[in-house]
Every structure is written in structure tokens, then in C-alpha cells.
Design brief:
about 50% helix; 15 helices; ADP-ribosylglycohydrolase fold; mainly alpha
């Protein structure tokens, strides 16, 4: 995921001419915004928020909205970086904890912020629990039917790849069977920041190709929100036995390696795999982990009006 995010960041919303000239997987490029703060091989908010969610999953803390909001704030505070939407970045800089974040957020967006961090939930054994958790975590920042459906779809994309369902037919059609409210959109290019469009683009890239390098190149060729499309697609495809794992070594070696860079990511990846190893005794699909209602039922209530405050 970090490779897709870091590589895609250098092409995000760049002109088609720049993408055509440079999208050859030979090296990383800096993001065009952020006043030079983004360096080649540096991941963005997509990976950082995924780290927050992954670490929260491993922490054993009660599954509450406040605890997750605390995790989002803490992970940002320890390593502030560019890539976040301007208003959300400023908010994270200003608040001290999850309580402050929840008090000031207006989580009425249908953009891809809830989806971009959801792929890690595809490591869960049960598909419906995976979709439910993804919708719940998205509700912290993207509490709309479309934003939450996109998050569930992103998590299920990983789940389908991990459980070798990529040969059973169209990935997006399978997701639609599991997530009421996920439309099979024919997205436009360049890809917008809409969550549903981003996940559709990521799924199509996996459907069309059989190697990680081809998927990564395709995600960038789409243009638009290239880092998020690539992050979601590579996170999912990395779990598929059908997909050739051929990311160029220089892209892996070129990832940042500060306190939360390559070595940290590798260690966390090991811990996640160990925690979510396919042992039916380790995870009970009927255990609700403290969630009192089925978030998926929210998708069917299209008349629901968002609250004024988070």
C-alpha cells in the first residue's frame, strides 16, 4: 500500500502529458503540492491513516468511535505530513485528542477518505464483519451512505483477493452482492476523489491485469486521485495468489525509512499477518467487538439525514 501511495502521489492530478512521459515505474516523484514537504518515496495520508487503523486493530482497545478518533489524532501528531485535505489537516493540527476531533468534525463527505484506510480490514476472516467494521470506521469522517459503502467495498476488495475470489468473476459484481448501496459505476478519468469512483477504478485495475507492476501503472494511467487508487489496488492485489508480486525492487528500497518508514511498515505487516492468520478459532464472526448495531443496515436507509455535528 505504501508503494502505491508513494508512487501515485507524484502523479496525483498531474496533466496527462506528465503521466505519459514519466509513468514507467523507474522512480518516485515528489507531489506537486505541499510546498516541497513531500519527497520522492514518501507516503501520504492514505498510508498514515491506514497505520492508525491497523495499530488500533492490534491494540486490543475497546472498539469505540472515541478510541479510533484518538488513534487518528495520535498517529498524525507523532508524524505530521502532507496529503490530507487542507481543512482536515488544519483540524488535526489544532485538536489535542479524539474528543476535540469529534466535536469539530462535520463528517458528511462521500469522498474517499474512509475508503483509503479500509483495505487493512480485508484481513479479517469473515466478509460481512469486514464490511461492517469498514463502514463503522468510515463513519468517523465520512458518515454518508456513499462514503461508508465505498469503505466497505475497499475492505472487501482486499478480502476477495486474499480469499482467492478474483477468478470467480467480476470483482465489482461480487462486492455489489455483499454491499447494498455500492453501485458499479463506470468511473470517468481522470478519477475524482469520490469514494465509489476510486474503489471502482482500483477494482477494475485488478480485474484487467495479473501483476502488481501492471496494476500500479494502470492506476496512475487513469490520472486524477492516483495515490488513493493505487494504494487501495496494491493493498488488495498484494493478497491475491493470482497476482504476480513483481513490484520493482527499487520502488520497495526507495520507500522512506524514517521512524515510521520501511522497517516500521515491515514489522507492522508481520504483526497483522500473525494476528489475522486464517485460524477459525482466532476470530468469531458472531462476536460484535462492542458494536451494538449492524452498520450495513444504514446503506438501505437512503432517507437518513446527516446530523449537523459529529
Amino acid at each position: 500500500m505504501a508503494v502505491g501511495d508513494s508512487y501515485g502521489a507524484g502523479f496525483e492530478f498531474r496533466p496527462a502529458e506528465f503521466i505519459e512521459a514519466h509513468n514507467d515505474l523507474t522512480k518516485y516523484y515528489p507531489h506537486q503540492i505541499g510546498k516541497g514537504q513531500h519527497k520522492p518515496g514518501m507516503y501520504t495520508d492514505d498510508t498514515q491513516m491506514s497505520l492508525a487503523l491497523a495499530e488500533f486493530m492490534l491494540s486490543g482497545q475497546p472498539v469505540t468511535t472515541l478510541n479510533l478518533a484518538d488513534a487518528f489524532v495520535d498517529t498524525f501528531k507523532r508524524d505530521p505530513r502532507v496529503g490530507y485535505a487542507g481543512g482536515f489537516y488544519d483540524l488535526l493540527m489544532e485538536v489535542k485528542d479524539g474528543t476535540g476531533l469529534l466535536r469539530r468534525l462535520r463528517p458528511h463527505s462521500s469522498k474517499c477518505g474512509g475508503a483509503m484506510r479500509a483495505p487493512v480490514l480485508g484481513l479479517m476472516a469473515d466478509s460481512l464483519l469486514c464490511a461492517d467494521r469498514a463502514a463503522w470506521q468510515a463513519s468517523v469522517t465520512h458518515a454518508t451512505p456513499r462514503g461508508m459503502a465505498a469503505a466497505s467495498a475497499a475492505a472487501l476488495l482486499t478480502w476477495l483477493c486474499r480469499n482467492n475470489h478474483t477468478m470467480a468473476g467480476n470483482l465489482r459484481a461480487q462486492i455489489r452482492e455483499l454491499v447494498p448501496g455500492f453501485p458499479l459505476d463506470s468511473f470517468k478519468t481522470p478519477v475524482s476523489t469520490d469514494g465509489i469512483e476510486v474503489v471502482n477504478a482500483a477494482a477494475q485495475a485488478i480485474e484487467k491485469h495479473e501483476s502488481m507492476s501492471a496494476i500500479l501503472k494502470q492506476c496512475v494511467d487513469y490520472g486524477g486521485d492516483t495515490d488513493t487508487v493505487a494504494a487501495i489496488a496494491l493493498a488488495a492485489a498484494s493478497q491475491s495468489p493470482r497476482i504476480k508480486q513483481d513490484i520493482p525492487d527499487h520502488l520497495i528500497e526507495g520507500l522512506e525509512n524514517g521512524p515510521y518508514g520501511y522497517d516500521y511498515l515491515t514489522d507492522l505487516d508481520f504483526k497483522l499477518e500473525k494476528h489475522f492468520s486464517p485460524d477459525p478459532e482466532e476470530e468469531d464472526p458472531d462476536d460484535d467487538d462492542g458494536l451494538d448495531e449492524d452498520i450495513l443496515s444504514f446503506f438501505n436507509d437512503t432517507t437518513a439525514e446527516p446530523e449537523d455535528e459529529a
